[in-house]
Amino acid sequence: MTDQINPVKVQKMQKMQKINGVRGMNDLLPADAAQWAHLENVLRDLTRAYGYEFLRTPIVEATAVFQRGIGEVTDIVEKEMYSFEDRLNGEQLTLRPEGTAALVRSVVENNLLYEGPKRLWYTGPMFRHERPQRGRYRQFHQFGIEALGFAGPEIDAEIILMGQRLWDELGLIGVRLEINSLGQANERAEHRAALVTYFEKNATQLDEDSQRRLVTNPLRILDSKNLAMQELIEGAPKLLDFLGEESLKHFDAVQALLKANNIPCKINPRLVRGLDYYNLTVFEWITEELGAQGTIAGGGRYDPLIERMGGKAAPACGWAMGMERVLELMKVSGSLPEPSAQCDVFVLHQGGETLTAAVIVAERMRSAGIDVILFCSPDGQSASFKSQMKKADSSGAAYAVIIGPDELSKNEAQLKDLRGSGQQRAIPLDGVVEAVIDAIVGATE
Ligand code: HAM
Predict the structure, then answer these.
(1) Could you say which of 269, 279, 282, 286 has the lowest number of CB atoms within 10 Å?
(2) How far apart are CA 161 and CA 155, in angstroms?
(3) CA 123, CA 85: separation in Å to the nearest integer?
(4) Distance 364 CA to ligand 1 centre (A)
(5) 206-261 pLDDT per residue, tens
(6) Of 104, 270, 254, nearest to 182 (Cα)?
(7) If you take atom 11 of ligand 1, which residue's CA is the nearest one?
């Protein structure tokens, strides 16, 4: 006897073991697909209402796009990027952690501002190596808008109004807007000097991360979630007190436009955002309904970015929302759409010649714009009408078209109303399309 394990057996067992998806990266299952489609439709209508054009960038970019765009000393670039070296040519590449830097790269590369300002939008998967939890994923989806080439406060207000319209459209409850101004570089430099002095004086109260940031990026200390440091952070010099006349004027004008449109907002002087490209207006929409991951969207003005990415200096602003978080909030708000039927008509048959007739009739209906599911047997055997009817019911179809040998011999089919009266009647086989259309139109009148 030997207790050695047979390698062939092990190999076979390995083959049978299921392979799971990557942690924090989720499948979109059919049951949820309609909700996403609904959200995407609302987003498309929203962008059309404000004249925004669609732009898609690749999922992979040169790592430098994000290092330079988002900033070296940010959580995203320091800790969260999926970066790798192209095995074939050694290029440093990164799965995009956000859309703005990539979009600006494309705008600059394709000279899109040549003819003047642009209003753009995008959507798609983003990747950040964060600790997964409810509302925080490693692959998540953003919808974002970016208005490039506009300097005035009215565009800041426009993009915020778009957000508010969207939340209203989606029926979201409990969303509040927080807003701040980060001023200009020189104003931040003065504030930064005051911050460094303040935190140096209180250095013993800083955690390890913040001590490091004191040297690299003291503003980020204000972002710290460390509860032990909150009092210290609360007492730190506020950037708003360092803003010059122009910056204050811009901030006031944005707020006045929001007020004129009845958009309530709270000034949060601690709102600094986690990306380094911002100046002047920054904002976030936050809810208490989703637990720790309550920021459903955020953005602001990023006038320095286009030049930083190698383009001709031009002002810009935008925001992005987490689609998973918004859908989750729709669920909490009870505003998700009812699941819709998979098809209008379900076609039943008994195999053989009835199947041939069923396939032809189903194709004819599809050509007329009717959505049809044809019963297909899982095991190649014909199934009873009773079991087929169960499938028809669960498909959500409004009508069943039944073609059995009796019907076929008379060149007929049965049309059954599955939702309303439940009535069933014989119709001519070559008149199925007309009969179904009559029934659908009749039911909606
Ligand atoms: P952000 O605040 O990093 O901004 O992300 C925007 C939104 O994406 C967040 O408010 C959140 O809803 C969602 N989000 C972020 N990380 C995750 C995650 N790990 N899981 C699920 N959802 C997440 C930006 O990305 C900027 N590009 C926004 C912007 C556009 N600023 C100007 N234009």
Answers:
(1) 269
(2) 10
(3) 26
(4) 46
(5) 999 899 888 888 887 887 889 999 999 999 999 999 999 999 999 999 999 999 99
(6) 270
(7) 322
* Residues within a 6 A CB radius of ligand 1: 98-100, 128, 130, 135-137, 140, 142, 144, 146, 274-275, 295-300, 302, 318-322, 324-325
Q: Where in the chain is the domain with CATH 3.30.930.10?
A: 30-183+243-333
Q: Which two tokens stand for residue 167?
A: 């939340």
Which tokens belong to 266? 């709270």
The residue to mutate among 47, 57, 98, having the most atoms of ligand 1 within 8 angstroms of its beta carbon, is 98
Which range (59-68, 216-225, 347-356) has the least confidence?
216-225
CA of 432 to the centre of ligand 1 (A): 51
* Angle CA 368–370–375, to nearest 5: 120
Where do we find the tokens 């969303």?
175
Which ligand 1 atom is the nearest neighbour of the CA of 275? 3
Mutation pick for ligand 1 pocket among 103, 142, 280 (CB with most ligand atoms within 8 Å): 142
426 DSSP β-pair partners: 414
All CATH 3.40.50.800 domain ranges of the chain, comma separated, are 345-437
The fold for domain 345-437 equals: Rossmann fold (3.40.50)
CATH number of 30-183+243-333: 3.30.930.10
Tell me the pLDDT tens digit for each residue of 163-184: 999 999 999 999 999 999 999 9
Distance 127 CA to ligand 1 centre (A): 11
Instruction: Write the residue with the smallest CA distance to atom 21 of ligand 1.
Output: 136
- SS3 call for 377: coil
How far, in Å, from the CA of 74 to the mean position of ligand 1?
14
In degrees and rounded to multiples of 5, residue 257 shows phi and psi of: -65, -35
| 123 burial type by CB count under 10 A (0-12 exposed, 13-18 middle, 19+ buried) | buried
User: By the 8 A CB rule, do 108 and 306 touch?
Assistant: yes
Query: How many residues does the structure list for the chain?
Result: 445
